[in-house]
Structures are given as structure tokens and as C-alpha cells.
């Protein structure tokens, strides 16, 4: 990711750009400081040119916005990232949310080997050549997501605490007829106390009511996809998300994905690691 971004006077009046958190197919995410109260926030830069026409919604409260923003603005849950505001820039829609989580790096003073076992030093990242109107080179921040946090030395209690929060967030979304559709460890941010929040609602949608409206397109990660998705069948959403929860639990418990290819996913075939705690095995088998 490189280049220069022109930001509006409104943005530069209210925010100061910080570090790079990540980038993907539809844009990238930076941290920023909100000038009014010095609060650090996350800003997702969504490229307008990459937003499908059918992903825009006329929201009665905030106007015409990408569905991701409309959904985040409508939900409120302790395990879902909080919506702050959005800004309509020339080439990007800026989705601004709270910033949650801690950098999972052994050098982080918030972490310690006793409270947070399995810590390791993160690889040093080269500065990105992305520049904004505030003229600074952007530093890549160590990830705050569950992928970086996962370690097989986690206790059963910690594993249960993490997974229970994820289940509560998904249950809440389903109760509102919403499916996330990209549930994975990299879309869950986590702090030093193992408090988690679900992020990245770029693939989120409302649960279709009729079979003819079932989803036929999948923008998520194949390793977490259910058999019907891998087989390219139409799917409703919630059932596939339950499958993703099982894959996620296996990943949290054992530090690896249960499936290595599409054939294994379609067959539902997986093997437990040879040396495992019987309690952890029963935890994963029950789901």
C-alpha cells in the first residue's frame, strides 16, 4: 500500500492520523487521535470504487451509506466494536469506530508472561509509504487481533472466556437478523484482559427470508467456510456461521485450523493434534 490521500478540512480539523492497522481488498485501516478529547480511534478507509452497487443503503438516520456502516450504526453490544461516525471523502468512505485491543507483543508493558502466557516478540515492520495531507509516513502497528493472541498455552478457562464472548456477539447479531459472514480470528480484537470485540462488517448482511434470496457470493476466508459455501451452494447464513464458530474454537484451542484444503472441509474431516488435553478435546467435540 502506497500513495497519497487527500483528506477534507473536516477530517484534519477533528483527527490526527496515527498508525497502520491493516489493509485488504476494499481499503485499509489506520489509527487516529480525535482532537477534541485525545481519544484514539480506528478509521477504515473504504474505497468507493470497490463498493458494489447493491451494497449501498438509504438509511433513514444517516443517509445513503455502505451497508457495513448502516449495520454497525444499528447495533450495540459489549462484544461488537462501537460505531463513532463516518466521513464522506472524495475517493473513500471513512468508517470511524472505537479502537479496542492491545498489541500482542512481548515488549508491550501491558502484558506479562504470567497473566498472558506464550508471548513472543513481533517482527519489526517497515514503515509504509502511505502519506496523508498531514504529511507523515505511516508505521505498521503490531496486530491487536485474536490471531496474534492465540497460543496453545492458554488455560481452558481463558479459552472458554474468549469463545463465550464471540458466541454472545453472534447470537445478538442473529437475533437482529444480521449475519457477519466473515467470522475468523483476524476479525476479533482482544485486549490484555481477554475482552474481545468483533470487527470488520464489510461482508455483513441481513438474513434473507426466502430461498431465492439466499447468498451465492462469499467474500470471507475459505478456511472458515462451511461445506455448502465451498460447494458453491446458496446459503442462508446463520448455519454457516455456526460452522465458522466451530472452526474458530478449534483454532483457539489448538492454535491451528482443523482443515487444510477444500476437500477436508466438504467431508468435515479433521484430526486432533496427537498430544492434547482431554478437557480441550471435549470442549471442541461438543460444538
Describe how the helices and strands are arranged.
Elements: E1 2-5, H1 9-14, E2 15-24, E3 27-34, E4 39-47, E5 56-59, E6 63-66, H2 67-74, E7 83-88, E8 92-98, E9 129-132, H3 146-149, H4 156-175, E10 178-179, E11 188-190, E12 196-198, E13 205-206, H5 227-230, H6 238-254, H7 262-267, H8 278-285
Parallel strand pairs: 1-9
Antiparallel strand pairs: 2-3, 3-4, 4-8, 5-6, 7-8, 10-13, 11-12
Helix pairs in contact: 4-6
What descriptors fit this protein?
nucleotide-binding, 5-stranded antiparallel sheet, ATP-binding, 2 domains, 287 residues, two-stranded parallel sheet, Phosphorylase Kinase, domain 1, Transferase(Phosphotransferase), domain 1
Quick check: average pLDDT? 87
In percent, how helical is the residue content? 25-40%
Q: What's the total helix number?
A: 8
Fraction of residues in β-strands:
15-25%
CATH superfamily label of the largest domain = Transferase(Phosphotransferase) domain 1
The residue ranges in which pLDDT falls below 50 over 5 or more consecutive positions are 124-129
Query: What name does CATH use for the topology of the largest domain?
Result: Transferase(Phosphotransferase), domain 1
Strand order of the largest sheet: 2-3-4-8-7
CATH architecture classification name of the largest domain: Orthogonal Bundle
Count of extended strands: 13
Distance between the termini: 39 Å
Q: Radius of gyration over alpha carbons? A: 20 Å
How do the helices and strands follow one another from N- to C-terminus?
EHEEEEEHEEEHHEEEEHHHH
Q: Total domains, how many?
A: 2
Shape: globular
Helical/strand content category: alpha+beta
Describe the largest sheet: 5 strands, antiparallel
Q: Class of the largest domain, according to the CATH hierarchy? A: Mainly Alpha
Amino acid at each position: 500500500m502506497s500513495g497519497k490521500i487527500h483528506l477534507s478540512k473536516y477530517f484534519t480539523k477533528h483527527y490526527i492520523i496515527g498508525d497502520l492497522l491493516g489493509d485488504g481488498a476494499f481499503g485499509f485501516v489506520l489509527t487516529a487521535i480525535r482532537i477534541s478529547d485525545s481519544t484514539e480511534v480506528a478509521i477504515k478507509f473504504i474505497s468507493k470504487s470497490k463498493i458494489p452497487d447493491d451494497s449501498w443503503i438509504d438509511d433513514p438516520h444517516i443517509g445513503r451509506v455502505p451497508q457495513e456502516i448502516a449495520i454497525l450504526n444499528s447495533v450495540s453490544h459489549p462484544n461488537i466494536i462501537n460505531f463513532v461516525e463516518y466521513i464522506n471523502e472524495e475517493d473513500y468512505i471513512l468508517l470511524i469506530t472505537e479502537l479496542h485491543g492491545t498489541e500482542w507483543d512481548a515488549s508491550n508493558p501491558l502484558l506479562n508472561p504470567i497473566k498472558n502466557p506464550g508471548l513472543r516478540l513481533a517482527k519489526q515492520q517497515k514503515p509504509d509509504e502511505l502519506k496523508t495531507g498531514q504529511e507523515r509516513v505511516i508505521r505498521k502497528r503490531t496486530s491487536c487481533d485474536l490471531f496474534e493472541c492465540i497460543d496453545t498455552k492458554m488455560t481452558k478457562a481463558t479459552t472458554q472466556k474468549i469463545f463465550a464472548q464471540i458466541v454472545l456477539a453472534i447470537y445478538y447479531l442473529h437475533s437482529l437478523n444480521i449475519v457477519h459472514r466473515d467470522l475468523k480470528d483476524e476479525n476479533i480484537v482482544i485486549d490484555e484482559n481477554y475482552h474481545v470485540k468483533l470487527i470488520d462488517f464489510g461482508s455483513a448482511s441481513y438474513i434473507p427470508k426466502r430461498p431465492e434470496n439466499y447468498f451465492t457470493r462469499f467474500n470471507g476466508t475459505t478456511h472458515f467456510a462451511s461445506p455448502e459455501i465451498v460447494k458453491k451452494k446458496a446459503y442462508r447464513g446463520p448455519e454457516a456461521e455456526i460452522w465458522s464458530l466451530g472452526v474458530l474454537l478449534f483454532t483457539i484451542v489448538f492454535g491451528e485450523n482443523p482443515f487444510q484444503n477444500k476437500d477436508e472441509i466438504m467431508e468435515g474431516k479433521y484430526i486432533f493434534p496427537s498430544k492434547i488435553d482431554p478437557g480441550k478435546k471435549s470442549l471442541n467435540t461438543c460444538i
